[in-house]
Design a protein that fits this description.
alpha/beta
Length: 306
């Protein structure tokens, strides 16, 4: 596919962690370069991104994400608390939930989903299962109250997540960064949830087999940046179009404003995610990209003027 043709594609990144300190030049509490979110966003718009949804990982991050979203009409955000951070609720659950609700209200028109929320059984050292389940279920009330979709996190916890969602019929949203089985995906889709795919969804041959079986009208694209880049060791890497492989990359210690940082993912790499999905599904990438764009509009922006 020619570069000219691919430039016609429209993308929406449904999961970008733009509040991460890496975009402020900070890595492991050490400053390596100046803040460069402006340059990161320029590369995104140049790559065909029409909208980016910033992920809110807890109350503080959700507020920061909203402030960033207000700087550009193409930026939006989620509001919620990640399962590994749900201990933050414990000091005063009523106030924490009320503060999340207030953030949603302040962000009318900018907040397009509740999340990132869900369950993560791979990292129980950060938050026990029962605490995760308790405050995930509490956040479902926000989705109902504001009629907003859910931006769900699921790691090694599909059975419990599905069980909880069955207790709350009528909800909708996306299971983001999906790396589960096709059976699990089918159960989520039966409950009116889309499947969000990024580099972490395309690591193994089993991942690619699952993606090949997903219906195109249920797929959404994301990068989960600065994480989840598609690495050369991943099964999906060989399917990336050479035009979409980054050529201007530098180490963080040798940062340049017009270069990507090695090992730090960016929204513009969403093109690579599309390359892999289109290849394993044997779909025309232009048609698939447009269908996924419409899927995303339907879920997050159907009731807005955006």
């Amino acid at each position: 596919m020619s570069r000219k043709m691919s430039n016609l594609r429209r993308f929406i990144d449904i999961g970008a962690n733009l509040t991460d300190l890496m975009y402020m030049g900070m890595y492991n509490n050490s400053a390596k370069h100046e803040a460069d979110l402006e340059q990161v966003l320029k590369r995104s718009w140049d790559a065909g991104l029409k909208k980016i949804i910033i992920t809110g990982g807890n109350l503080v991050e959700s507020e920061k994400a909203l402030n960033i979203a207000k700087t550009d009409e193409r930026l939006f955000t989620t509001v919620g608390c990640h399962p590994t951070r749900c201990l933050e609720f414990e000091e005063n659950p009523t106030k924490y939930l009320s503060d999340l609700k207030e953030t949603v209200q302040k962000g009318a028109g900018k907040v397009v989903a509740i999340g990132e929320c869900g369950l993560d059984y791979d990292r129980l050292q950060f938050c026990p299962k029962e605490i995760q389940k308790k405050y995930f279920e509490l956040q479902l009330d926000l989705s109902k109250s504001f009629n907003l979709p859910l931006f769900l996190h699921c790691r090694n916890a599909a059975e419990d997540l599905i069980e909880i969602l069955h207790k709350h019929p009528g909800l909708h949203g996306v299971v983001h960064s999906f790396d589960g089985t096709i059976k699990e995906a089918e159960q989520f889709m039966e409950m009116n949830f889309f499947i969000g795919l990024n580099g972490c969804s395309l690591k193994t041959s089993q991942n690619l087999d699952t993606v090949s079986k997903l219906p195109c009208d249920k797929i959404l694209l994301e990068t989960d940046c600065p994480w989840c880049e598609i690495r050369p060791t991943h099964a999906g890497f060989s399917f990336i179009n050479k035009d979409n492989l980054a050529t201007s990359v530098t180490k963080k210690e040798k940062w340049k404003p017009d270069h990507m940082v090695k090992g730090r993912n960016e929204p513009n790499n969403i093109r690579q995610v599309l390359d892999v999905i289109a290849s394993v599904k044997k779909e025309d990438p232009d048609k698939l990209c447009e269908l996924i764009y419409e899927n995303t509009q339907k879920l997050f922006f159907a009731n807005t003027n955006n």
